[in-house]
Design goal:
heterodimer, A: about 120 residues, mainly beta, seven-stranded mixed sheet, four-stranded antiparallel sheet, globular, B: mainly beta, three-stranded antiparallel sheet, 10 strands
């Protein structure tokens, strides 16, 4: 059974940093791209970014709203994907979902999400 | 950035009725990179349709997707009580992804 479990969310002040983790199980983690999607309270879904598998260079892509502030990385030996969030803004407040991304660019498995609240 | 516009914003229907949800993209996209998701309150989204018309694993046959180019449709043939939720479309292209704003299907 595929499982994705996010951790690391919480309350953080504007301008500070936070790192989220996504621990995967039930599939060969290194074979898949991994992505982060967020959802602000009461709002729709917003793609944050993704990291390709090593077979495709392990490169990353980001939404314009987070580019230069957020970094996605992966540790295939531990089956963990990370989202490093720097220079956080109040508008980054959201539930952050870890997802498994298919070659077709869709997300076939989602974690339960972790809430990040950016507030002073 | 490709913008996805979903309509209507809210759809009020009764169980057993047919639901037709629309998603229009601001540029032509490949059907291979288009998907639909369902989200219920307090839950993560669930993949329904990928490649515009392929049902994901364990998705009931009452859900179907169609469309190409800039116009895509999700149809629920007969609404079951568990289908009342918010539905999102999504596209992938040019190393960027976008979601539509969502359509809420509510009980009339």
């Amino acid at each position: 059974e595929v499982q994705l479990v996010e951790s690391g969310g919480g309350l953080v002040q504007p301008g500070r940093s936070l790192r989220l983790s996504c621990t995967a199980s039930g599939f060969t983690f290194g074979d898949y791209a991994m992505s982060w999607v967020r959802q602000a309270p009461g709002k729709g879904l917003e793609w944050v970014g993704f990291i390709r598998s090593k077979a495709y260079g392990g490169t990353t892509e980001y939404a314009a709203s987070v580019k230069g502030r957020f970094t996605i990385s992966r540790d295939d030996s531990k089956s963990i994907a990370y989202l490093q969030m720097n220079s956080l803004k109040t508008e980054d407040t959201a539930v952050y979902y870890c997802t498994r991304a298919s070659a077709g660019g869709y997300f076939d498995y989602w974690g339960q999400g972790t809430l990040v609240t950016v507030s002073s | 950035e490709i913008v996805l516009t979903q309509s209507p914003g809210t759809l009020s229907l009764s169980p057993g009725e047919r639901a037709t949800l629309s998603c229009r993209t601001s540029q032509r996209i490949s059907s291979s990179y288009f998907a639909w998701y369902q989200q219920k309150p307090g839950q993560a989204p669930r993949l329904l349709i990928y490649g515009a018309s392929n049902r994901a694993t364990d998705i009931p046959v009452r859900f179907s997707g169609s469309g190409s180019g800039t116009d895509f449709t999700l149809t629920i043939s007969r609404l079951e009580p568990e289908d009342f939720a918010v539905y999102y479309c999504q596209q992938y292209g040019s190393s960027s992804l976008t979601f539509g704003g969502g359509t809420k299907v509510e009980i009339k």
